[in-house]
Amino acid sequence: MAIAKMSVAELEEFLRKEFPQAFTHDDIRIESADGETALLRQRFSERMLRPGGTVSGPTLMGLADFAMYVVLLSAIGPIGLAVTTNLNINFLRKGQPGQDVLAVAKLLKLGKRLAVGEVNLLSGTSPDPIAHVTATYSIPNQ
């Protein structure tokens, strides 16, 4: 198991300071992050829904990308300029209105310049993913 370079408290402090547009409204909570995996929860709000009452694609993509960023920072430390270079999402089933969305992120490979991971998105307490995401991040020279 990897040793986390940032605790949940350190991640939250860093993100509130360096990335407030994504992490100041208290709608997303980091439940765990250990250098290999992270669990994030986005509280349900009506803003998440698209016509037809399902959780929107942009909501799911944004949460997945943010979860990947969090798990990466937990592994490499406070390197704010790590950026997404690729994100692929497969929508598997409808996210239920009224339910929080959980993002279960996992690093698959961490190199010097690139990190690859996956994120499963879950609706409420259902164990069945509503979307599966793979993502690659570029890590700047340090």
TrEMBL record:
Transmembrane segments: 66-89
Keyword Nuclease annotated: no
Pfam families associated with the record: 4HBT
UniProt xrefs under CDD domains: PaaI_thioesterase
Boundaries of every Thioesterase domain copy: 52-124
Entries under Gene3D superfamilies matching the protein: Hotdog Thioesterase (3.10.129.10)
A GO term, aspect molecular function: 1,4-dihydroxy-2-naphthoyl-CoA thioesterase activity
GO CC annotations, alphabetized: cytosol
Keyword Membrane included in the entry's annotation: yes
Coiled-coil regions listed in the entry: none
Enzyme Commission number: 3.1.2.-
Keywords: Hydrolase, Membrane, Transmembrane, Transmembrane helix
Protein name, UniProt field: PaaI family thioesterase
Lineage: Bacteria, Pseudomonadati, Pseudomonadota, Alphaproteobacteria, Hyphomicrobiales
